[in-house]
Amino acid sequence: MAGTNSERRMIAEGPAIILVEPQLGENIGMVARAMANFGLAELRLVNPRDGWPSDKARSAAAKADHVIDGTQVFDTLEEAIADLNFVYATTARQRDGFKPVRSPVTAAETLRSRFRTGERTGILFGREKSGLTNEDVALADEIVTFPVNPAFASLNIAQAVLLMSYEWMKSGMDDVTATPFQEVEQAPATKDELIGFFEHIEEALDARGYFHPINKKPKMIDNLRAVLSRRAFTSPELSVMRGVISSLDRFQRRRPHPEAAQAGEGREPGHDDD
Amino acid sequence: MAGTNSERRMIAEGPAIILVEPQLGENIGMVARAMANFGLAELRLVNPRDGWPSDKARSAAAKADHVIDGTQVFDTLEEAIADLNFVYATTARQRDGFKPVRSPVTAAETLRSRFRTGERTGILFGREKSGLTNEDVALADEIVTFPVNPAFASLNIAQAVLLMSYEWMKSGMDDVTATPFQEVEQAPATKDELIGFFEHIEEALDARGYFHPINKKPKMIDNLRAVLSRRAFTSPELSVMRGVISSLDRFQRRRPHPEAAQAGEGREPGHDDD
Question: For residue B186, what pLDDT is reported?
């Protein structure tokens, strides 16, 4: 099931990620990796402290080379956003001012709808220690902030980029409950298959005197069927279960395990039902 | 506005995060930090390669000491989940088998509803290099997987924990578009305030001969009002704008800036309207 072409599609589109005066190459690399994980590719750096290119960044990017290779460096934030139509600033603290404040979900939806109409967009992330200045924030259209633990609110830069990238990816999904792969079978078995299973196990138990005393047999069958049908078995699951019953039914134990024999002591068949 | 008690509330509840045979202390520390960011506190380690406690983990946890101090270590995964009622396994690849596969959003909602009914829950995360084995996954109730770029799907362990912790936090919010703080003012100004602003600026312009030729004045006013009302100004914003107009209107330029004077060359007031 794995390895179809569509599963390997490289996604590389969407808002630019703009890091303002990042300090550590490792952080820039982790940002690149997080972007690649969720299909973003355009990284811009404003005045990175340790220069560019950066071996540490490339190493931390864990093969997100397409992001690292395409990274652009600017002297000022004004230059870094010059060609963009709409920009978010990420910040963990309230600013005085008139900017609308959005959740990551709302911001991602806004970025997605602007992307679909052809606008060029970006998201600003601040310095490791001090975040964005008020002057940086003033250049953005709106603010985005994360719903964090109030007593432990500090996200590192790669984490913040990861969360926005993840919400960006989700904003492009028709259904956020969809998954890239699914379980092998989802539909419950037919009732015919289920009743066949009931009859199989009941016959094997009956042959062993499980339904004892016999006047309780209807109630015991009710209980057993309730237990076995609470979870809706699929067809392949019923095949597995029927194999188990057949094995227990037809074959004698060959090498009794000492522990298992001990654990079974004192257990009587047919008395766990009422 | 900042610094109220409610803003500093420490959240520490919810599913246990269980790392199976983690290798690097740094990763364990970043996991602890991610948990603390989104209000989780219970970290369990199965057979960590470099032992426990770990100075590297504490350092990377960036002061999430309550998580590090409470971390429990187990020899086996079976022991680590023994007291739990419901467990998710995180995996990036499809497994043969019968486990339901959920998105992070669905998984977080499921964990939240089980938490509210008093169940104890957990989320399994695999080894840095190889993830969870099929045997590990078999011990979980359901699988959770992330919507990633198909060609760049590998999340590191701290990133995966961060995303699940973030979705956990969101699952407890009544409204995922809510933000921990809001802009200072959101309501648009009244029309009375807005019209007062229009009249202010129009009077100042009229006094300068802006509305030229005079027969175009009604159309020019229409255009100007359209520009000024497209974005709904708030009351404080109108105060700022009226201050700007008053300053331009009442005070002569004191120290003409050479560049500004040059940039203004060739611009005639009153001719940018049609």
Answer: 62
